[in-house]
Structures
1.
Amino acid sequence: MKFGAKFFGMAALMLLASVSLFAQKPADMVGTWSGLATLEGTGGPNELILVLELKEGKLAGHMTDQYGTMNQAPISEIILDQGTLNFTVSVAGPGGAQMTLKFKMKVSGDAMKGELEVPEMGAKGTWEAAKKK
C-alpha cells in the first residue's frame, strides 16, 4: 500500500513539473502578433497587431489596427498565467469617448486565440493571432 501511494505521489509531482515546463514564459511572448478580430454587431473583421516586449523583466507593448483607430495604443493590466494572456487597451471611441478593450487569450506556441470585450459598448468578440516570424 505504501508503494502505491508513493508511486502516485511521484507521478502527480512529475505531471505538475511537466505542465510548468510547457507554460508560456514572458520571453516566449516577445514579438509581433497579428490576426483578425471580430466584434458582435459591427462590420467585418479588423486586423489587430500586438507588439510585445520585455521591459525590466515584465511584458509591455502596444496595439495597432488596420483602420488607425488604435495607433500604437499602449496595453496595460498584462497578466500571463498558465498559458493565458490577459491585457487591456484603452482607445478613443466614437465622439472621442474612452473605451477599453479587454482581451483574454489562450496561448499555444506561436498562436493565440480568445475573447475580447468592450464593456462600454456591451460588446463581445473574438481574436485569433499568430506570431510573425
2.
Amino acid sequence: MFGSPSNGASAYSRIGVETGVVAATPNQLVVMLFTGAILAVSSASRHMAAGEVEAKGKAISKAVAIISEGLRASLNKNAGGEIAQNLDSLYEYMTARLVQANLKNDSGMLTEVHDLLNGLKDAWESMDASAQPAPQEMEIPKPPQARVGGYDALAPQATRLIKA
C-alpha cells in the first residue's frame, strides 16, 4: 500500500544527490564524477571476482559513461591548453582499459583505472580545499512577533476548557 522501504531510501538518496549537485561548485561536481566512476569500477571489480558477467558489464559501462560523457566531455580544450589535452588523452586511455578489462576479464586493468581515478580525484579535492574560504557561522534572524490584542499570538497559551 505505501511502497517498499527500499523505494523510500532510493528516493531520499536521489534527492540528496540532486541537492548536492545544485549546491556544488564546479570543482565539487568534478569530484562527484570521479567518485561515481570510482564506485562503478569498484563494483565492476566485485562482480568480476564473483563471476557476475552481466553486472560487471553494466558497472563498467557506467564507469565508461561517467568518464566519457562527464569528465571528458566537460573539458575545455581551448581554455585548458596542454593540461586539458593531457586529461583528454588520459580519459581516452582509461576508457580503452575498461573496455579491455571487460573483454579479457582482467581485474588488473580495473585496478589500474581505479588508481588513476583516485589520484585525479585527490588532486581535484586538494584544489577545491585550497580555493574554499573557511565557513563562517551565519546568524539566523528571529521571526517578527505577531501581536494581537497586546499579547504574542504565536506564543503557547494556557488552555481554557469549558465544560458543557
3.
Amino acid sequence: MPVTHLLDTSALLAHYFDEAGAAEVDAIWQEPSHNPAICVLTITELRGRLAIEVGSADEIERVLDLYVNQLTSEAPVDRWVAEEAARLREASGGRLPLVDACIAACASRHGCVLVHRDPHFDRLPEESVARLRLPDRS
C-alpha cells in the first residue's frame, strides 16, 4: 500500500504529549485506507526532542518503538529527496531547516500529505507538497 501521510516530528510530539492535533494524528492511524510513514531523519529529531522533554532512556526507547516500528513505515532519504530538499529550501526563501526540507521532500517523493504543525512549512509552494497543518501547540 502506498504511503498516504508523512508525519513530521511535530505531529508525533503532538500525539505523544496529547496536545492540539493529537486527535487528527490518531485518526490517520485509525483509518484503514491510510498508510502513514515517517522520514528516517525524523527518528533523529524525535530522539533528540524526547531526550530534552522526557529524559528517561527507557521511555525514549518505548516511544521510538511505538512510533517508528509499530505505527509507521520508514521513508528513506535518497538522492532525489536530497535534490528536492534543496529545491524546496530555495523556493521557501531559504528559511526552511535542512531536516524539515528533507522531510517535506520525502512527502513530495511519495505524493502523500505532510502532517505537521511547523509554520515554516507554510512557506512551501502549494503545488510541491500536500499538507495538513495541525493546530499550534496550546
4.
Amino acid sequence: MSKYLPLSEWLSRQTHDERRLGLAEIEAMLGSPLPRTARHANWWIGEAEKPQHRAWLDRGWRVQDFDQAAGTVTFHRIRAPRGVQPPVMKDASEEAARRAHFQTNLGAAALVGAGLALAAGLGVLAGKALGRRQG
C-alpha cells in the first residue's frame, strides 16, 4: 500500500476540477509528515517518476501550482475518473448532442422539402402535358 493512497482516494472523490490543499492538510490526510523535500516544487512536479506522482496522476490529476511561501499545492483534474463527468464536459457533450439533433432534423426537413418541390414540379409538368393533349 502506498503511503500516498489516502491523498489519491481523496482526489478521486472530488467533484470540482481544481483543489488547493495546504501541506498540513495533506500530512493530516496521510497520517504522517511529508518529507522535507516536499517543501520544494520539484517534489510535486513530475511525470510519474516518483511514488507521490502516481498518487494524483493515476486518478487523473496533476499539480498545477506549488506555492512554497504559502505551503499550498493546487491540483487540477486532467481527465475525469470513470463514471464522473465534470460539468464543463457534460455541458459541452449536451450542446454537441443538441447540434447533432438539429442538423439531423434540418437534413430531414431539407429532404422532405426537396421531395415536395419535386412532386410540385412533376405536377406542373403533368398539368402542362394534359393541357396540350386537350388543346
